[in-house]
Amino acid sequence: MSPSRSTEQLRAIIRTQTEVVSGALDPEAIMQLIAERAQELTRASAGLIELAEGDEMVYSVTTGEATPYLGMRLRKGASLSGRSVIEGRVLRSDNTSDDERVDAEACRRVNAGSMICVPLSHRGETVGVLKVYAPEVDHFDDGDVETLKLLSELIAAHLSHANLYEAESRDSRRDALTGLCNRRAFEERLPTELARAARSGKPLALVLLDLDGFKGVNDRLGHPAGDEVLRAVARILDESRAADDCFRIGGDEFAILMPETEAIYARTAAERIAAQIRSANLGDGAIGASYGIAASTNRDSDTLFAAADRVLLAAKDRLYGRQGT
Q: Are residues 223 and 157 in the same domain?
């Protein structure tokens, strides 16, 4: 690393510390800031914080190209981040394609050609890692390792309880009732997936799904019964697609993102999900589902959402028109 770059990184770390101290940031904001700064200072494509949860590592804070993978889980013993936690030391892979320590499939999925994992410790216990990765091999140097060490020390110094790592980062983007990603996570994820679709020239399909008969269940059977309906629908969605592609965005409204999927195939998947909901006999058999689909490689978030919403509203109009209500 050149002296000028080293000086710039040190100044940036000092600025980060000042922001943390003077801004009275909460634990989630601190982690988000440091993950972003880690990506910026190492010129990585992604910065993230992975937290140890049992035998797994969880993508708990994500920036850059890692943003779509918030909540992704890796086996602790088969990933570089997990090994970093187990061994309690910095691990670096300059070429993930021939490194037996990494989860090769996960690296291909997130486009990580090289990476650094720095342990995050609290009261002598390693609770996770600060990680950066880049698509090319040999991207990082020793100076980048030192930068991440300093940033990891900032996290340890300002987060007083290790369990706040998990609670603050995950709960803010998870729906407490269903366990699905929430609207905030959806609004963060959609622009990223649209940008990815535009770069690749492959479509992104968005499915908006709204439950039919849900208000009647709440009115007749009570809100606890309605809550159980929502949890059951979430389980159906979870089993139908990867959990991190499904979102609860409103009361009985759900969204499903389907990267690299044409509208015709998304419609087939949506109809299958709707059929599963109808056949699950939820709310004493009163619950069905309507859906709207839009797909594009070049729309912005608002335009794509509005297009899917128009199709959904038309489906609801047809349904209630047939029912005479």
A: no
- The count of structural domains within the chain is 2
Candidates 175, 219, 252, 284; catalytic one: 252
Rounded to two decimals, the pTM is 0.53
Residue 55, domain member (yes or no): yes
Least confident of 37-41, 59-63, 199-203, 265-269: 199-203
Told to judge if 238 belongs to the known catalytic residues of this protein, a careful annotator would answer no
Domain assignment present for 188: yes
CA angle 191, 75, 246 (to 5 degrees): 30
Which residues, including other chains, have CB under 8 Å from residue 85's CB and lie 6 or more apart?
52, 57, 76, 119, 126, 127, 128, 129
Using CA atoms of 37, 28, 206, 212 in order, give the dihedral in degrees to the nearest 10: -170
Whether 190 and 158 map to the same domain: the answer is no
Residue 176 lies in a domain: no
Cβ atoms within 10 Å of 101's Cβ, excluding its own? 15
Residues in the chain: 325
Residues 255 and 152 in one domain: no
**pLDDT tens digits, one per residue of 9-19:** 656 665 655 55
- By residue range, what is the domain housing residue 61? 3-171
Q: How far apart are CA 31 and CA 52, in angstroms?
A: 15
Do both 152 and 52 map to the same domain? yes
Q: How far apart are CA 61 and CA 102, in angstroms?
A: 20
Q: What is the DSSP letter of 258?
A: E
Each residue's pLDDT tens digit, 22-70: 555 566 777 888 899 899 999 999 999 998 888 899 998 899 999 988 8
Instruction: Find tokens 């335009």 and name the residue.
Output: 303
DSSP 172-203: TTB-TTT-SB-HHHHHHHHHHHHHHHHHHT--
